Amino acid sequence: MSVVQNNSEKSKWYLPGIFTGLGITMKHLIVNLFNKKDMVTINYPEQKYEYSARFKGNHVLTVKKDGSLRCTACMLCATNCPADCITIKAAEHNDPTVEKFPISYEIDILRCVFCGFCEEACPVDAIRMGPEWQTPALAGSNFIYDINHLAYRSTLKGGIQTCVDDEERHKAGI
Length: 174
Ligand code: SF4
Ligand code: SF4
Hints:
With 174 residues, the chain is an alpha+beta fold. The chain is built from 5 helices and 5 strands.
């Protein structure tokens, strides 16, 4: 790496540089004030960016037709998570046709890198990444998303039912 030094007398005066910078700022301010529609920035939070339908935002645990969790606590999502931020506790189900279910499913969203591996790894469409991305909270503990939040938060309006029915899934050999 080479360092180019400018030792001229003019370069020792800092005021011309400051006024040049202020001039550039003022020029952009005036241009933007009279051409708001051409501005590349938006006035958040009054205006919000419309992301595509494929945007991978906050996680959703999907539910079956009866409202129970689709998740079978197979641990594939937790095993594939590169951030190690999914914690699942499995339990035996009373229904003999259901092998296991999660009594606890938590995602530490502050550690999550939103890579989508959990969604890809899930064999039963039990976890999806939805369009929500505004997730402010006041305390660190509020960033641990539990089953209540992941499957039944109010914005989901009763939960997201998967289009893959168990019977259809078994017929398709999934
Ligand atoms: S999106 Fe990636 S980092 Fe976040 S929980 Fe899923 S696998 Fe882990
Ligand atoms: S969300 Fe899917 S991959 Fe993760 S434990 Fe449940 S069934 Fe398995």
